[in-house]
Here is the input.
Amino acid sequence: QKTAYDISACLVGSEMCIRDRNRVLYIIGVSQNENELKKVLNHASNVAGVKKIINLVIDKNSPERKKHQND
Here is the structure.
């Protein structure tokens, strides 16, 4: 079984972070690509005791992100 610490280790060098509150993992930030996000979500789904994962990550190439950068 994975722990929140194991997930944090897979995020080294990433623009994402994880917050753990009441057995809910909040994954927050910017992913470099879809594969990076899938890797993190896969790790998160294997964390013992987690009842829910909330993904608040946006892809760095997302048109929505680029729109906000130009504001």
In short: Strands lie at 15-21, 24-31, 52-59. The helical segments are 4-10, 34-45, 63-69.
